[in-house]
Amino acid sequence: DLRKQARQLENELDLKLVSFSKLCTSYGGARDGRRDRYSSDTTPLLNGSSQDRMFETMAVEIEQLLGKLTGINDKMAEYTNSAGVPSLNAALMHTLQRHRDILQDYTHEFHKTKANFLAIRERENLLGSVRKDIESYKSGSGVNNRRTELFLKEHEHLRNSDRLIEETISIAMATKENMTSQRGMLKSIQSKMNTLANRFPAVNSLIQRINLRKRRDSLILGGVIGTCTILLLLYAFH
Fold first, then answer.
1. Which residues contact 127 (CB under 8 A, 6 or more apart)?
2. Least buried of 40, 68, 129, 153, by fewest C-beta within 10 Å?
3. CA distance linking residue 45 with residue 128, whole number of Å
4. CA angle, residues 131, 133, 134, in degrees to nearest 5
5. What is the pLDDT of residues 121-143, one digit of tens each?
6. Could you give the CA distance from residue 73 to residue 96 in angstroms, rounded to a whole number?
7. Cα gap 197→219, rounded to integer Å
8. Which among 54, 52, 45 is positioned nearest to 37, based on CA atoms?
């Protein structure tokens, strides 16, 4: 259940970070487009700063998701270190380490993107009155966006590979648990068969004793009847 919650939070974080990165990369271009609509360079750059508000909102949401994911990882660590955990500590530690690495990557990516956004915003505010610097920034914006898009696609491929590996590990762990359960059932059946095999000699011995006693009783009864018959005949002819 904790791993399921962690994967759900990781998926949400992945989508949030992609949107967050796109917002940051499109921030400068959007500012340039707004400035082109005005004839004067003295127009304030922060008029209608919807992207700034969106940035703050998304940053708060991502920080909350990172906090929740950190709590889930702590709970998984407590479960791994608790007593009574089956002999899967190696696999569990591997899984926990992978979730920690993912959390660390997301945290690093968030702080890096946030720092880049703040740097871009500060640079935009400082260079807002200089047309030449703005135009040079616009000329390089398309290349940067293309590179960022390629990096995001490569990042998505890596995330998909990690998810496939995670699913494979889950299937392998479930298979191991099923094989362990089947082995326990086979041992129980073998124990019962051994018990029955040990009981059969005692049953055979008891049956043989009963048969011997029946034969002895038949011989005694036949001897008594024969003796009585002889005595009757002697008495009759006497």
1. 133, 134, 137
2. 40
3. 7
4. 60
5. 777 777 665 555 556 555 555 55
6. 7
7. 34
8. 45
Cα(32)–Cα(234) distance, integer angstroms = 144
* pLDDT per residue as tens digits for the range 177-219: 888 888 888 888 888 877 766 666 666 677 788 888 888 888 9
Encoded amino acid at 166, one letter: E
Please, are residues 16 and 59 in contact by the beta-carbon 8 Å criterion? no
Answer whether 16's CB lies under 8 Å from 61's CB.
yes
1-29+46-141: CATH topology is Methane Monooxygenase Hydroxylase; Chain G, domain 1 (1.20.58)
Full-model pTM: 0.45
Give the C-alpha separation, 75 to 4, whole Å. Answer: 13
**Could you state, in order of their start, the residue ranges of all structural domains in the chain?**
1-29+46-141
Which pair of structure tokens corresponds to residue 194? Answer: 């051994």
Are the C-beta atoms of 66 and 103 separated by less than 8 Å? Answer: yes
Q: Which residue has the tokens 């759900």?
A: 8
Residue type, 213: R
